[in-house]
Amino acid sequence: MPPEQRTVLITGGAGFYGESLKAFLLERGIGCVSLDLEEDGSDHPLLTRVRGDIRDRELLARLAETYRFDAVIHLAAVLAHAVKDEDLLWSVNVEGTRNIAGMAKEFRIPKVVFTSSNCLWGEDLGRPVSEEELPRPVEIYGRSKWEAEKILLACADSFDTVIFRCPTIVGAGRLGLLAILFEFIDEGRRVWVVDGGRNRYQFIAAADLHDACLRALAYRGGGIFNVGSAAVPTLAEAYRSVIERAGTGARVASLPGWAVLPLMKLAYRLGLSPLGPYQYRMIAASFMFDTTRAENLLGWRPAVTNEEMLWDAYRYYHDHAAEIRQRTGVSAHRKSAGQGIIRLLKWLS
Fold it and tell me: Which of 18, 213, 219, 285 is the most buried (most CB within 10 A)?
């Protein structure tokens, strides 16, 4: 590579967002080394694919010594609904991040960009959440993300960390729990909301997060930045927009929160539901980030609405449904989540 060629390490590069971000950076001439436990099927002259674990410190050292990274974009994480082994989740999300920080410090990598989460909270605060709001996670995934943030920020004397606190990342290819919604729409069933679906829940388009990451690589310094969509509609409005365009005969229907939420909590405790404490607490709640800091300091603006990104994700699901059902050995966001007791709702829909 020529001396001016930038090279970044992307952890979790074979996941839904990692694949999308890689393509975005590679198109702009930025060399990428993708590190993931899953097989990476991408190909590009500026791409190096490595199958490995961020908990493997020797591997990280070899990669850093070989490629002399200009930055690390740290996406790799285990999701709570994807694994029942909480020790594994904590080991990857926290100790893996500690290894990333140690590598950056030892090999003088100047920048780490980290994707954190709105799972740092599990309640409707009644206002857009700023970067100064103290996190109050309600489950292990949120706690692991907060601990990872603290690990990286503690290394401010060694490298700059830009932390993006992100709501759910949505775009073509995003599946996971959203695939349950898309299956109901595709089959023309009732799409269930709670208490009329009047709550407003912010997403972030993959394309908008790409732009934020690119700006972070050029930003001098570090810090925490909230990102998310603008003009957030109610969940019912967002779902109806997809249903109308899909033309499948699906329709939005509502269930009362007083009955549904206790049942969801019980189902999770019995191991019958993919929706954990964060999901069942927030299913009827509103949550939005205040993105003013990212707009003012990074010059970033969200361009894609919730309706547009959900439509792109649904259309991908519709076009690839048969192949998606056969997927194995891919990240949690690139396959459909198990429905568990939600399948009963499908039978009633």
Answer: 18
Residue ranges, CATH 3.40.50.720, the chain: 7-170+202-226
Q: Encoding tokens for residue 223?
A: 């810090």
CB 121 within 8 A of CB 71: no
Cβ-based neighbours of 115, under 8 Å, separated by 6 or more: 17, 73, 74, 75, 77, 164, 166, 169, 209
What's the predicted TM-score (pTM) here?
0.93
Q: How far is CA 122 from the centre of its chain?
A: 16
Tokens (6 digits) for 307 = 């309706």
**CATH C-level class of 7-170+202-226:** alpha beta
How many residues would you count in the chain? 349
The radius of gyration of the chain from alpha carbons, rounded to an integer in Å, stands at 20
pLDDT tens digit string along 106-140?
999 999 999 999 999 999 999 999 999 999 999 99
pLDDT-derived band of residue 2, with 50, 70 and 90 as boundaries? very low
Q: How far is the C-alpha of 134 from the C-alpha of 153, rounded, in Å?
A: 15
Rounded CA-CA distance 28/2 in Å is: 15
Going by C-alpha positions, the residue among 147, 156, 85 that lies closest to residue 120 is: 147
pLDDT tens for each residue of 137-196 = 999 999 999 999 999 999 999 999 999 999 999 999 898 889 999 999 999 999 999 999
Chain segment 32-55, per-residue pLDDT in tens:
999 999 999 899 999 999 999 999
Degrees (nearest 5) of the Cα angle 113, 108, 22?
35
Q: Which residues pair with 234 in a beta bridge?
A: 200
Residue in the block written with tokens 């500690």: 98
The per-residue pLDDT of the chain, averaged, comes to 92
Burial group, residue 328, by CB count within 10 angstroms (0-12, 13-18, 19+): exposed
Give helix 206-218 / helix 16-27 axis angle, nearest 10°.
60
